[in-house]
Amino acid sequence: MSAPAKAKIKPENGDLIECLFNPSELTITKATQWEATKGKGKDTPKLRFQQGQSGTMSLALTLDTTDTGEPVTKHTEALLNLTKVDPSLKGASSGNRSARPPWCEFHWGSFHSFKAVVENLQIKFTYFASNGTPLRAQAQLTLKQFEDVKSWALQNPTSGTPNPHRVHRLVPGETLDRIAAAHYDDPARWRLIADANDVLDPLELESGSLFAIPEPQVMSRG
């Protein structure tokens, strides 16, 4: 039996933030804005659509380093960095003060979120070593959609693939190079499958996941 997939937060730049423990709950919210038209003498006005609202995703993370004794602040600081303005990001300019914090994506097995920014982050330290070193913390994280997306099918196995050709379900013990060998007769083309399915770590694949198998000419890396 394969190990459970580990949840990760992928920042716009910098290192992956691996969740020490997978969240027990994940809440996704999407709202739309409608305007009531005037209509005298009616019980209910007709609504006119205005626009969609940014989606949000809320989750609670447990950060615990009691097994190693290292400060848990190493992990809380990585989350806090997602709220800090980074002048090195694309589009930033010191002249017009357009710098911003980075966007990020939440990944958990075949689940890939929309690009999002941290709308709210609350960190509560709950356990300390005898010398005062914080070893455990609870993080409440709310992510807000950064840009529009064509599809809200967050677990769509063909996400990122312009023209998917086939879909492959992973069986226990199977690897990307074996899948590439089966579909392309070339195990070296495993990166085509990894890129098409936003695979962050080819060594951590969840049995039963669906993978899009793109046409080689479509996904050519050039």
Which keywords apply here?
11% helix, 4-stranded antiparallel β-sheet, globular, 3 helices, mainly beta, disordered C terminus, Membrane-bound Lytic Murein Transglycosylase D, Chain A, 222 residues, 2 domains, 12 strands
Describe the structure concisely:
The protein is mainly beta. It has helices at residues 73-80, 176-184, 190-196; strands at residues 8-11, 17-18, 26-29, 32-36, 47-52, 56-64, 104-108, 111-112, 116-128, 134-145, 164-169, 210-214.
Structural notes for this entry:
- The protein is mainly beta and 222 residues long.
- It folds into two domains: 8-35 and 43-145, Elongation Factor Tu (Ef-tu), domain 3, CATH 2.40.30; 164-214, LysM domain (Membrane-bound Lytic Murein Transglycosylase D, Chain A), CATH 3.10.350.10.
- 11% of the residues lie in helices and 33% in strands.
- It is built from three helices and twelve strands, in the order E-E-E-E-E-E-H-E-E-E-E-E-H-H-E.
- The strands form four sheets. Strands 2-1-7-8 form a four-stranded antiparallel beta sheet. A four-stranded antiparallel beta sheet has the order 3-6-10-9, with helices on one face.
- Helix 2 (176-184) crosses helix 3 (190-196).
- The longest helix is centred in the last third of the chain and has 9 residues, at 176-184.
- The radius of gyration is 22 Å and the shape is globular.
- The relative contact order is 0.16.
